[in-house]
Amino acid sequence: MFPKLDPVLHSELRLAVVSLLAGVESADFTYIKKQTGATSGNLSVQIDKLSAAGYITVEKGFKGKMPCTTCRLTETGLEAFRNYVTALKEYIS
Amino acid sequence: MFPKLDPVLHSELRLAVVSLLAGVESADFTYIKKQTGATSGNLSVQIDKLSAAGYITVEKGFKGKMPCTTCRLTETGLEAFRNYVTALKEYIS
DNA sequence: AAAATTTGGTTTATATTATAAACTTGTTTA
DNA sequence: TAAACAAGTTTATAATATAAACCAAATTTT
Known about the structure:
By secondary structure, chain A is of the alpha+beta class. Helix content of chain A is 54%, strand content 19%.
């Protein structure tokens, strides 16, 4: 009746990050931070978790001389997001 | 951009309980337990939290000789649920 | 050019949560 | 009457989310 909700996505900030990434080709740390309003520490941790789950890829490079961390949603991540949304609808409809 | 999600409702089991109660006039502990597949302990704790938040009322009585705990969604609870659903849609659409 | 500030994060500590395991009280069944 | 079951509650534990503190490099200020 109530399907299990993916615990990786059932987190306010991680869900926001994935939702954001689902709409763009890629986004860097600073941008995600601004859009979500998260603190750096929290965002850093949650990005690690999404990465560990294989839901996003994280690429560290530089923009000019400044470090820049770029995140991208993987196929796995997109599918997990879709599944989560489907499951969630059982709860809220 | 991403609205804050009510932490009382952003919990798999509590959300299931509220979702369930939103569709019926009332439901007792055993029924909720069956429908959600939760363990008694977990359900007991989460019902307390929903009750403490004023989202449900809990009435202890007997069905025959057996104790029976009946739960009902309050107006506050229903409104919180609606708000949660609205907020969530910002994340998943 | 040295000092102070900002950028872009990471690491660590803490407080909260979710969950299961163990327990309680009373009832039914063998 | 002893064992098993029902309906929960309480307590312990493991996982989470979050913020606070920290760090290195770049930039700006004096």
